[in-house]
Every structure is written in C-alpha cells, then in structure tokens.
Amino acid sequence: MHRLRDFMFERVYLADASHEEHRRAHETIARIVAHLVGRGDTPDEIVEYVAGMTDRFALAYAADL
Q: Whose CA is closest to 57, among 35, 34, 32?
C-alpha cells in the first residue's frame, strides 16, 4: 500500500504535468469563492458549500458564472 501511495504522489499528484491542473483548480475555486462572497454568503456558508462540491459540479458552477 505504501509503495502504491508513493508511486501516486511521485507520478500523479506532484508530477510536473499536474501543475497546470492544480493552477486551474485553484483559479476555479477562487472564482467560486469570490462569487459567493459577492452575493453575501458568510465564511462558514462558503466553506460548507465549496467543501460539498464534486469536481464536476464545481466546474459546471464556475462555467455558469
């Protein structure tokens, strides 16, 4: 199990190729958070809402902004 974990971190999660996806993910979440702040949601509401999002839902939500 530890070898698989090490492999995934080295070759997938932290690989150079994943840096662009990480940047896009951060930008997407930042856009969503900015929108929620703008509409007056509280910090607790924002955290709860964003934490409950699936990747697919977050991308669709951001696309509609």
A: 32
Our separate counts of H helices and E strands in the chain read 4, 0
Rounded to two decimals, what is the model's pTM?
A: 0.78
Contacts of 16 (CB under 8 A, 6+ apart): none
Per domain, the residue ranges of the chain are 20-65
- Those residues whose C-beta lies under 8 Å from the C-beta of residue 35, and which sit 6 or more positions away, are 65
Residue 31's Cβ-side half-sphere holds a number of Cα atoms within 13 Å equal to 14
Q: What integer pLDDT is reported at residue 51 of this predicted model?
A: 97
Tokens for 15, please give them.
Answer: 């690989």
